[in-house]
Amino acid sequence: MPYQVIISDQAGADIDEIVGYIRDVFRAPMTASKKYDLIMEVLLDILPEHPFWQHPSWGNYHHGQQVYVYNADHYRIFHVPDRNARQTRVLRVLHYLQNSQRHL
């Protein structure tokens, strides 16, 4: 049975900012669309089936639960899987160069 994926408001805003930045600053709407599709594939297809697939984000906890990170191209998707509830909460979607300690 797949896990339910809950996307936080902040993660949704992160995705919007990523797509907008690529589209508007780099003037690359097709690339922005591809990044969006990649991130959504992870959120909708991969995380429901494999929430523990990649690795824990060492030292990062959310309400006492281990934060996991899924790498998708140049972006890291931070989420907290809960075995008992069969769900994972997506906290942030950050570029790999961003300081995750500061943003989590």
What would you give as the CATH superfamily?
Answer: RelE-like
Our measurement of the CA-to-CA distance between the termini, rounded to an integer number of angstroms, reads: 29 Å
Number of domains: 1
- Which class do the helix and strand fractions yield? alpha+beta
Percent range of helical residues: 25-40%
Mean pLDDT value: 94
Beta-strand percentage range: 35-45%
Rounded to the nearest angstrom, the radius of gyration is: 13 Å
Number of DSSP-assigned strands: 5
Low-confidence blocks of residues: none
**Shape field:** globular
Question: What is the helix/strand order?
Answer: EHHEEEEH
Reported for the largest beta sheet, the result is: 5 strands, mixed
- Separate helix tally: 3
Instruction: Give me the CATH architecture, please.
Output: 2-Layer Sandwich
CATH class: Alpha Beta
CATH topology: YaeB-like fold
Strand arrangement within the widest β-sheet reads: 1-5-4-3-2
Structural overview:
The chain is α+β, with helices and mostly antiparallel strands and about 100 residues long. It has a 5-stranded mixed beta sheet. Helices cover about 35% and strands about 35% of the residues. Strand 3 (about 65-70) and strand 4 (about 75-80) form a beta hairpin. The chain has a single domain (about 5-104), classed as YaeB-like fold (2-Layer Sandwich). The model has no long low-confidence stretch (mean pLDDT about 95).
